[in-house]
Amino acid sequence: MAKVIATINLKGGVGKTTITAAVAEFMGGLFGQRVLLIDLDSQINLTTMMIGEDLWVQLNNAGRTLADAFRDAVGGTAEFDIETAVQRGVSPVRQVSGVDLLPSSLDLIELQEEVAALHLRRGGGVGAMYILRDAIAPVLDCYDYVLIDCPPNVGPITRNGLAIADAYIMPTIPDVLSTYGIPQIQKMVAEFGATLGRRIVELGLVITKYKANSTVHRTIVRNLRRDPTIQNVLPTYLREANAISAAAEYRDYSTLRNRYGNQGQYEELESITRTILTEAESKL
Ligand SMILES: Nc1ncnc2c1ncn2[C@@H]1O[C@H](COP(=O)(O)OP(=O)(O)O)[C@@H](O)[C@H]1O
Ligand SMILES: [Mg+2]
Questions:
Q1: With CB atoms counted within 10 Å of each terminal CB, which end of the chain scores lower, N or C?
Q2: Residue 127: CB within 6 Å of ligand 1?
Q3: What is the pLDDT of residues 261-279, one digit of tens each?
Q4: Are 42 and 107 in contact (CB under 8 A)?
Q5: Domain AAA: where (predicted)?
């Protein structure tokens, strides 16, 4: 059975998409895992990092994105085909194989409202939260890991992601505003898990955009580590680096070092991925 891990934080710009993309590529390229990436964010950043904008436009026009799965569910049609929607071997890094992608769409913005309306029409319950689960069920067994990049909100699309998640990671910049919402996320996920009748495991905080020379960053990381309400702060931090922001560009890369940077970034991401794999193996 695939282990499903959601990446979530209610704040934008904290490195959710970057971590999700990198962890998937390291899982596939370095650790031999078969990975399905699910891009649930209507900003489509993960999608364009993996397949570029041109292919995304084609897929979007052809009804081959996740938006079409949700559109079927709210409209009562059955046009979405998971086999043609899943993009195989997507990473633009030559060293990487085994990473597939279920692309996102800008249309998810308006569909979010429609899924919320469907939920109400059905008198609440969890039915409208299982649209994604039902859509991907036929391919789930093909993977070791499914990584879901969630949008920065707790709407019905995010909940569809959590409804298939065994666990979640929370990327966060160690500054005042970015860490502010952590208790809300924990509470929301715990309550939603209870509604589903199971636990969604908190795998840990991933410290991103870390600045070792910042007193604020050092202090906040220290406090997070001592905080008894936080299950786990991953021991390796992803430091702020130009190479990491440049990695968002869709172009040919020969290796993971080539995409993510050779001044410690590769080692940081390797270690973060290794820890996530170890934690997932022991806790899920
Ligand atoms: N460690 C890092 N160093 C430098 N830039 C980063 C780092 N992590 C992410 N970024 C950049 O910060 C921006 C926001 O990151 P992103 O992963 O898109 O965040 P989110 O998905 O949480 O909105 C992007 O431009 C990304 O390239
Ligand atoms: Mg993002």
A1: N
A2: no
A3: 999 999 999 999 999 999 9
A4: yes
A5: 2-195
Tens digit of each residue's pLDDT (9 = 90 or more) over 219-261: 999 999 999 999 899 999 999 999 999 999 999 999 999 999 9
Which CATH number characterizes residue 89's domain? 3.40.50.300
CA–centroid distance, 127 to ligand 1, in Å, is 34
Q: What angle do CA 183, 16, 2 make, to 5 degrees?
A: 95
Residue nearest to atom 13 of ligand 1 (CA): 13
* Number of domains making up the chain: 1
Domain hosting 140: range is: 3-283
Quickly state the pLDDT bin for 126 (edges 50, 70, 90): confident
